[in-house]
Amino acid sequence: MNAIRPIKEWSSADRRRLKGVFVDIDDTLTDGGRIAANVFRAMEYLRRKGFILVPITGRPAGWCDMIARTWPVDGVVGENGAFYFRYDDATRRMLRVYADPPKTRQANRERLQAIRAEVLSSVPGVAVAVDQAYREADLAIDFAEDVAGVGDDAIDRIVAIFEKHGATAKVSSIHVNGWFGSYDKLTMTKRFMRECYGVDLDADTAAYVFVGDSPNDAPMFGYFPNAVGVANLSEMQDRCAALPAWITAQARGDGFVELAQVLLEDR
Predict the structure, then answer these.
(1) Fewer CB within 10 A of the terminal residue: the chain, N end or C end?
(2) pTM assigned to the model
């Protein structure tokens, strides 16, 4: 892997080509689980200056409905790519697009129950995520949000249980998310841009930024040549299959604000 470079070395000429920002939420926009006012201001300023802004998250459908309706964003990809939601202010209608049809999602949720039972009986100190009730496609196992936190061995055991049952498992900074299906954050991000903006990301990858912090962001880090990690990426860097080109000096939400300030300088 190439060394990650500080964003202060990113040329202004390259930054001026940018059209949009895709951003993870947990520990990228948040700090201690909360989003500070300066982070929301940075999001609002990016949109005012013409950037497409889309959170790409592992958080559940219930949260994503609220995010699409109330945040200064152009849509949201949720549950690690299970769907995208986009709210139309003019018509006051929510567009909901899923990777799988309702019957498939229902069948997959039932299959996840066996994994849930095995994880809880086999891995001490973890729990089903408190936001599980609002999920439509995946199972989230909490190892660091509302529990005391467990070591890498426990995280590896959770991933192994998902994979033993044929499920995909991805590690974020707080959860292991598992699901049945071939989608991920990147596949649904491409679909969102194609269907909502007529943009072929494969043809214009360098015009968009992704910013994140954890292993489940690796497909995005590997795809976008101008991907950015916030400084706390270093805490889980060894688990990342791909790394971003750039990194902020600040961690979490302050890192996102740092990136936004750099991008806004060129507008």
Answers:
(1) N
(2) 0.96
